[in-house]
Amino acid sequence: MSTIISFIIVLGVLIFVHEFGHFIVAKLFNVKVLKFSLGFGPRLFGRRIGETDYQVSALPLGGYVNMLGENPGETAEAAETERSFAGKPLWQRFLIVAAGPFFNLGFAVLLFFLVYAFIGLPHPVPGTKIGEVAPDSPAAEAGLLAGDHILAVNGTATEDWEDVSRLIRDGEGRPVMLDIRRNGEVLQVTSTPKKQEVTNIFGEVVGQRYMLGVTRSSEVEYQSISLFEALGAGFAQTWSLIWLTLVAIVKMIQQIIPATELGGPILIAQLAGQQMEVGWINFVYFMALISINLGILNLLPIPVLDGGHLVFFTVEAITRRPVSMRVREVAQQVGILLLLALMFFVFYNDIMRLFNG
């Protein structure tokens, strides 16, 4: 049940933020908005307020804002021509379309800001506490356990995890004697590091070094910071994740990251439920990450997506004339086929993950 609720919260909030971006900028430029919908397909319920029909539709995998004069070939009544999307200057149309994905990116900044402002900036808890011991590793064979504190390596005191890594690495594979604290008792353990491949977060091998097979504890503590610092940290964290997402897309195109890593709504629902169970801070971080992914996805230059429309507007700005109706129609058909193929693929991945546990 928590999985379903958390999924509805994540998807509902992020779709609303995206469509609200289009909506509010359209209103800013006096464009008539006919419909604001969360979801696609048949209308489930809603209410007309003024000139806009606000509704929730049957398929909850997106949403849309329908503006007067938005669709190709659509004409507005003479009295409302000035409120038509198509009748607005190019730069206003560009900003209206770009507002959706950029509101998603801005929403991530807001979420990080709220966490940092009210909870604090997270930092790893200092010390040498072991977080995990890899199975069949030298550390596991020596009897090291998660939760042990490494006090010294070969008699040299260790104050932080960098000391532990450096002393083991500098030993060049020779046996090391570890002084550890476990449940208030100090023990001595001897283990022989093995040379292992070191990989980055994308699974690429970046080198080799001698390791025992332990990782530091993932516990964090929160440091209070000013609102200005929290805002700066929110921007920094958002930019970091934007860059990471773009690099991941490139790595996937290069087939360094397998396409089977792609996930769809089922995976998002599972992860949302897991993060909700861990705690609300993890859930907020997860929502910010999905918001960033949604923003970047919509900026990709694929027809039908916001990025595809921005490409058309860019071409129009360069050539001083709109892209022909025929080219736009063909491009949109290709874009729809690409999106359908992508949706089928991610659903397939999600289903295979369920069968494989």
Q: Considering DSSP H and I runs of 4 or more, what fraction of the residues is helical?
A: 40-55%
Q: How are the strands ordered across the major sheet?
A: 6-5-7-8
Strand residue percentage: 15-25%
| H and E order | HEEHEEHEEHEEEEEEHHHHH
Number of helices: 9
Q: Cα distance, first to last residue?
A: 19 Å
What's the mean pLDDT score?
A: 86
- Which radius of gyration do the C-alpha atoms yield? 26 Å
Structure classification: alpha+beta
User: What are the segments in which pLDDT stays under 50 over at least 5 consecutive residues?
Assistant: none
Q: Explain this structure to me?
A:
The protein is α+β, with helices and mostly antiparallel strands and 357 residues long. It is built from nine helices and twelve strands. The protein has helices at residues 2-28, 90-118, 138-142, 161-170, 227-253, 265-278, 280-299, 306-319, 325-355; strands at 33-49, 52-67, 121-124, 130-133, 149-153, 156-157, 176-182, 185-191, 194-199, 205-211, 214-216, 220-223. α2 (90-118) packs across α5 (227-253).
Summarize the structure.
The chain is an alpha+beta fold.
Strand and helix layout:
Elements: H1 2-28, E1 33-49, E2 52-67, H2 90-118, E3 121-124, E4 130-133, H3 138-142, E5 149-153, E6 156-157, H4 161-170, E7 176-182, E8 185-191, E9 194-199, E10 205-211, E11 214-216, E12 220-223, H5 227-253, H6 265-278, H7 280-299, H8 306-319, H9 325-355
Antiparallel strand pairs: 1-2, 3-12, 4-11, 5-6, 5-7, 7-8, 9-10
Helix pairs in contact: 1-2, 1-6, 2-5, 2-7, 2-8, 5-7, 6-7
Transmembrane segments: 6-29, 94-119, 230-250, 280-300, 330-348
Subcellular location: Membrane
Main location: membrane
